[in-house]
Amino acid sequence: MTDPVLEERRGDLLLVTLNRPDRLNAVSPELYQELDRTLASLHRRRDIRAVVITGAGRAFCVGADLKAHASGTPTDRERHRYILLAQRVNLRVQRAPCPVVAAVNGHAIGAGLELALSADFVVVAREAKLRLPEVALGTLFGGGVSYTLPRRVGLARAREILLLAREFTGAEAFEMGLANREAPAGEVLEASLGLATELAAMAPLSLQAARSLLREAPHRGAAATLRAEGEALFRIMQTDDWQEGVEAFRTRRTPLYRGE
After folding, report:
1. Could you read off the pLDDT of 80-109 as tens digits, one per residue?
2. Are 117 and 145 in contact (CB under 8 A)?
3. Which pTM value belongs to this model?
4. Active site includes 8?
5. 46 and 156 belong to one structural domain
C-alpha cells in the first residue's frame, strides 16, 4: 500500500505531504496515525526549523472519506477513537515546537480545512474551493475550528462559514483574513517553502515563545499577559541565541541561531 503521509527533508525544513491523491487526500485513520507520528517526532528533531504540510495531486484534503464511512457502521468505541485521533493531530499542529505552514494547493474541505486552520500560516491556491460543510451534512466539526476560525476571521464571519456551511474560494479566504497569502495553484508550494525558509532563519526559542504567547493570550487578561511576556523574555535573555542576536546586530552580520 502507498504511504498515506510522505516526509521530505529540505535543509532545515520538513515537507509533509498528505498522500491519498486518488481520494483527494481524504482523511482516514491510517493517514491520521501517520501524521500523528510525524508531528510527534518533531519534539525530538531539533534540526527541523519549520514544517510545510501540503497535499499530493490536485487537492489539499477534502475531509473525511465519506465513502469509507458509508461502507460500514463503526462501533461507538471506534467513533470515539477516531474523534480523539483527529483532535490530537490538530493539537499537535497547533503546538508543534516549530512553525507550521499549510500549503493549501487545492480544495480544503471539512477536516482538511480544520487541519489548515491549525497551522501558523496558510498559503492558499486562489481557485481552491474551501468549505466546512459539517452542519449541512448532519454531522459536526471536531478539529478546533470553533476556536481557530474566529481568531482569523472574527465571530460574525465564522458563524456564516460554520452555520451556513457556505463554500468560498482561496481568493475569498485571503480577502477575509483566513489565509495569510494567496497564489496560483502551481505556485503555492514554492510560496509556502519560501515562507517556511524565512521562519527557519529566525531564533527558534524566540519563535517558540512568541507562538505560545499568541496562542494563550486570549485566555489571559492584560496583566497576566504582561507577566507571561516578561517571564518568557527573561528566559530568552539567558540563552546563547539572545547573545548571538545582540552580537550580530552590533557587528552588522546575519545571526546564526542554534536554538540554545
Report:
1. 999 999 999 999 999 999 999 999 999 999
2. yes
3. 0.94
4. no
5. yes
